[in-house]
Amino acid sequence: MFGLIGHPTSLEHAYDVAKELGYPEYINQGLDFWCSAPPIVMDELTVTSVTGQQIQGKYVESCFLPEMLANRRVKAATRKVLNAMAYAQKHGINITALGGFSSIIFENFSLQRLGRIRNIKLEFERFTTGNTHTAYIISRQVEQAAPKLGIDLSKATVAVCGATGDIGSAVCRWLSERTPVAKLLLVARDRERLQNLQADLGRGKVMTLNEALPEADIVVWVASMPKGVQIDTTTLKKPCLLIDGGYPKNLDAKVQHSGVHVLAGGIVEHSLDIDWRMMKIVNMDVPARQLFACFAESMLLEFEKWYTNFSWGRNQITVEKMEKIGEVSIKHGFRPLLAFAKA
Ligand code: NDP
C-alpha cells in the first residue's frame, strides 16, 4: 500500500477541502483549531497501471497550513508532519510521499533527529519526498513545452527561481547535462548557496528575480514560498514560458498577457482514471487523471515494490535517479502535463 501526506494551501482552501470531503466540524475553524487537529485518512484509492497492475493507497491529511509558518507556529507545523508520518506508518503503509511543504518542514527543522513519536519509532525508509520524480517531470515539461511555443532550447535562456532547492538544483543539473539550453540563470536569496551551485554545475549566472525575469525565455518556479508573488508581465520576453511548480503556487494571480504561457509544473497526467476526490479540491483541470508528481512517485515505488526512501535529504538528486524514476513513470502510464493554463 502507498500513502500520500498532503495539506491545504491556505486556511480558506482548508474550508473548501472540509466542505467537499464532508467534514462539517472542520468548516470555519480558525488557525488554532487546525494547529491542534490530528491527522486523518481523507481518501482511499485504487490506481491501475497501463500494465494492468493495481495498487491501493490512502491520502492522509496532515492538517498543516502554510499560515502556521507565516504566524511562527513552528512547533505546530513540525508536529503536523511528524504525527502524519507516524499515523501513516501505524496504518501499515509501505511507502508514503511527503507532499508540498511536508518534506520542506521535515528538512528545514531537521526532524530526522526526532525518530520517535510517542510509542512509534519512525522508519524513514517508508517515506519519500517525491522530489526526484517532480524534478524529472518539470525538466521534461521544459523540454516538451518549449518547442510548442517556438522556443528553441539551444538558443534559450532558462531562469530557475529556487535554484538552490532540492527540486531546483536537480532541474539545473538535468538542464545542464541532458539539454542544449544556451543560458541558465540561478535565482534564490542566499548568494553563497547560489555560488556553490554555480561551482558544482560549472555554469549558470547568479541573479536576482527582477534581473532574471526580463532575460528569460523560460522561467521554472520552484521556490518554497508560503504565498505567491506578483510579477510585472510587461517586462517578460514574448513568448515566455512560465512553469510554476510551487505548492502553494509561486505566482500569485492568473497571468493574463498574450505571449506569456503558464504551465502547472510538476504535474503528471495518468493514462487511466483514478477514482478519488483529492485532485478536484486542488483544482486540477482533469481531477481523475492529473496529480502531483511527488504523489505519483509513491505510486511508482509501490508498483515497482521499491520500498525505500528513493528521494531523501537535500540536493542529493542525480540525473541518473531522475532517469530511473522517469522510465517507470512512462512504463506505468504517467506523462508530464503539457496543457497551458487558460488566460
Ligand atoms: P527547498 O526548500 O529545497 O528549496 C526552496 C528553494 O526556494 C531554495 O532555493 C530557496 O533558496 C528558494 N526560495 C525560498 N523563498 C524564496 C524567495 N522568496 N525568492 C526566491 N527564492 C526563494 O524546496 P523544494 O525544492 O523541496 O520545493 C520547492 C517547491 O516545490 C515548493 O513550493 C514545494 O511545495 C513544491 N513541490 C511541488 C511538488 C509537486 O509535485 N508539484 C512536489 C514537492 C514540492 P533561498 O532560501 O536561498 O531563497
From TrEMBL:
Q: Which UniProt keywords apply?
A: NAD, Oxidoreductase
Give the Quinate/shikimate 5-dehydrogenase/glutamyl-tRNA reductase domain ranges.
146-257
Q: Name the catalysed reactions.
A: a long-chain fatty aldehyde + holo-[ACP] + NAD(+) = a long-chain fatty acyl-[ACP] + NADH + H(+); a long-chain fatty aldehyde + holo-[ACP] + NADP(+) = a long-chain fatty acyl-[ACP] + NADPH + H(+)
Superkingdom as given in the UniProt entry = Bacteria
GO molecular-function term, one example from the UniProt record:
oxidoreductase activity
**What does this protein need as cofactor?**
a divalent metal cation
The UniProt entry, under InterPro entries, shows: AAR, NAD(P)-bd_dom_sf, Shikm_DH/Glu-tRNA_Rdtase
Give its E.C. classification number: 1.2.1.80
Family according to the record: Belongs to the short-chain dehydrogenases/reductases (SDR) family.
Q: Which NCBIfam families match?
A: AcACP_reductase (TIGR04058)
Function, in words: Catalyzes the NADP-dependent reduction of long-chain acyl-ACP to the corresponding fatty aldehyde. Involved in the biosynthesis of alkanes, mainly heptadecane and pentadecane, by producing the fatty aldehydes used by aldehyde decarbonylase.
What is the protein's given name?
Long-chain acyl-[acyl-carrier-protein] reductase
Identify the species of origin.
Answer: Zarconia navalis LEGE 11467
